[in-house]
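Memo to structure team: turn this sequence into structure tokens by end of day. - J.P.
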Amino acid sequence: MVKRSQAYLMVFAASLLLACGGDDTTKVSVKIYPAEGAMHDTLLTDGSSSFMELVLTGGPAPFVQRFDLANRSGQLLDLPVGVGYRLEARGFSIGGDGSSSLNFYGASNAFGVDPGVVNRITVQVGRADCLAYNRPSVYRDPTGTADMTELRVGMSATLLRDGRVLVAGGATLDTNGNVLTVSDTVEIFDPVHSQFLVAPFRLSEPRAFHTATLLSTGEVMIVGGLNGSDRSPTSTASTINVDGPNYVSPVTVGLEFQARYDHKAITLSDGSVLIVGGTGADGSALDSSYRYYPVDHSFRVQGRMKYARTGHSLSPMLRGTELALVAGGKSQGTVHGSVEVFTINPGQTGCQDGQVPNETDGCWVEMPQLTMNPGRWGHTAVAAYGGEDVVLIGGYTGADGSAATDEIRVVPQSLGGLFEAGNLLTPRGEVAAVESNDGVSNFILVAGGRRDAVPQQTAVRLVREEVNGAIRYNVESLTDGCIQPGSFPEARWSPVGVRLTNDVILMMGGGNQSIDGFSASRRAELYFPRHVRQ
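Reply from structure team:
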């Protein structure tokens, strides 16, 4: 008698793409389909791949099987009932020497197997190491869309615990690039069928250039932003529970909290949310910071930074009592190169106003050895390599944004210095930068941005290298197999990128430019990594 785990492996090998039937205990219907775009549409039919490999993980044992590309749908039979399965599809070409190279990649969201029902799984694949237009599956909701339903710049995008992405608020632009309208709408990217769905609720008020932070409860905390009436900053905050029944709940922030937009917020190691800097109601940069504690819904004032900052970066730290690092930014025409660290160490000196920090009331300490020269704002920071590095990418060196830098700088968790770590292909600010994984090691995808008010289209990978103790992030162009190598399908600045649970990167929105002037974008693209896991 064949054991159940052996049975499903045997059936998988023999009949996954043969559309078998029967009265099996469980049944999973599988469809593989390509992303949209000239370099992706014919991936499964143009002969560039010699075979397709399907990888099933999450069951009693991973399983890999090679299949003919002519078969792109079928069934998995007799899988053990459970959750946490994932299916990867990878296409390979065979070289003249018999070696294989990855041509396309895609993976499903995690799925469960239930008895007595047909579980339908789709996998969108794209040319490896390329950006593609998103294409919903055949099982999409009739109201689902490939792109966002609205034009959005300055919106937030938050990866939820189940793999969905919550997209909230944002603004449209007039032809001169100024904020025209501010949105209170919410939509959700469904990774199961690669579609955007309008949420059954709205924000408590319109918001753009706000922050959205995932809490340990699974809720998303929304703070500040420009409002919709006169496009001035708001001081309100709320939490969102996408599954209801109370979708949006107000958060009491206290009279001390100053209205702001373009601020930054991150979740700290203790589960609290740190909110820092931004632009206030009078147009000036702010030096204040706050913490929100989800456990008791308290909102506490923290120490002031030495410098008021907007257009800065905020990154988590892994140093026990040093919890976060803020870098750069600008205020009142001055571009800052300074770096400050947020600490709760009672023995720390150098805090502003002589403050003595403690576990609930932290303060900021300037780190002169980490000063950037030149200073910058509108740069992007990524806590990369398992949090070991804070990688600072690009940014503007002039207060009006007319000059930019191509520099990549790294602050290690040791805070031992600020190190030159490479250069982008061109200077730019307001890029999207997202870390993902190729199955062996991590890399950072950098896309879009703006230089001299011109939206940028290039996209590159940053790959970490350490030689004789020196850290570099080498710039690598995307694959030559793309119709526009190393390019965003649509040039724009301030797109928002999210790494999905299958290592594919979702890029959304931002600002673009045409012959008619500036506008916001609703575009959504996917980056398919060169997933080389063996």
